[in-house]
Amino acid sequence: MSEEITAFEIKIPQDRLDDLHHRLDQTRWPDGLPGAGWEAGVPLGYLKDLAAYWRTDYDWRAHEARLNEFPQFTTDIDGQTVHFLHVRSPEPEALPLVITHGWPGSVVEFMKIIGPLTDPASHGGDPADAFHLVAPSLPGFGFSSPLAAPGWDTSRVARAWAELMERLGYHRYGAQGGDTGAIVSPELGRIDPDHVIGIHVNNLGTFPSGDPAELAGLTEADQARLGLMSTWSHDMAGYAIVQSTRPQTISYALTDSPVGQLAWIVEKFKEWTDPSADLPEDAIDRDLILTDVSVYWLTGTAGSAARIYYEGARSWGQVQARSSVPTAVAVFPNDLTLRPLAERDHNVVRWTEFSRGGHFAAMEAPDLLVDDVREFFRRFR
């Protein structure tokens, strides 16, 4: 197996963009119930407006160029092409940090935090807080595609990340992640504890084992998150059930219809962002949302990305071996993170709760996330 690392540049062929525009022009719209809100899904009027903006106002080339400002590479690990950003700090003593996105995210999530983390001096921070950043695209997501084989669950991803950091010459490093990244990062600590010095997670999923004692004496904040967990499982988990059981079936619709792909993802930007936001773009810039959606559409990875759910479903809710690596947990609004369960599974040495932001913390509240990451890792420098 070649360990070669190859420079990479995002360069979407023009005919793919022309095809996107043609499909948007030819969208076959369903009926919508007049006056209906978001309770049954993305409202027709909202999606028509967003799709029209995607077609006429959104400029992929501008955002492609912005992404290409970050050094990017590909390498083959365990038979899979892995795409990653590798942004080295100008500070020679910077701490290596691997950061992992989730679904429906991508490396687009990190565009607002890369500069402050790698070059704090240029963003009003302390140069001593600098990181060398490695931000891979999950296998089957975006430019880490096509998916070469089945079996890419989060443990296999973590093993690939350990190999990637070794290949880059980083023998002492931290890990950060949210959503799927909040599963991969602690698993990386379990797999590579001699090299992973600390783990920082946001949107950490916690699952009761069935022992009532685990949920005794919850704080008011944890009680509220437990209630949200119940709401999620009964009213908001449809996408997860589909992707964990029939990812191939849903892939046909999402790969053939850009509006279908848009609706599938933007619904999550509505439900998971800061609860004070009325619309997704009230929490995250509309162009940034569309850049994330465009990565899925232009790479045709809706189905392969969904397989992370399919591969991981067997272990959902199972209690993991407790990690010994020092861990920081950042809790944003709408996170389903219960402190007693987090402490059951992780060596939690820092716990921070925030009153603004949401699931996509790096996009919604980059200042809060950056500050928390900096503060946590100071103890390891």
Question: Overview of this structure, please?
Answer:
The protein has helices spanning 14-25, 44-56, 60-67, 114-118, 154-167, 181-191, 220-236, 238-245, 247-256, 258-272, 280-283, 286-299, 302-312, 339-345, 361-364, 366-377, and strands at 5-8, 72-77, 80-87, 95-100, 131-136, 173-178, 196-202, 326-331, 347-353. With 381 residues, the protein is α/β, with parallel strands linked by helices. Strands 1-2-3-5-4-6-7-8-9 form a 9-stranded mixed beta sheet, with helices on both faces.
By secondary-structure content and strand pairing, the structural class works out as alpha/beta
Number of strands: 9
Helix content: 40-55%
Query: Mean of the pLDDT scores?
Result: 96
- The run of helices and strands is EHHHEEEHEHEHEHHHHHHHEHEHH
Discrete helix count: 16
Distance between the termini: 34 Å
Q: Beta-strand level of the residues, as a percent range?
A: 5-15%
Quaternary organisation of the protein chains: single chain
Unreliable spans: none
Main beta-sheet annotation: 9 strands, mixed
Identify the overall geometry.
globular
Taking strands numbered 1, 2, ... along the chain, how are they ordered across the largest sheet?
1-2-3-5-4-6-7-8-9
Rg, please? 20 Å
Quick overview of this protein structure:
With 381 residues, the protein is of the alpha/beta class.
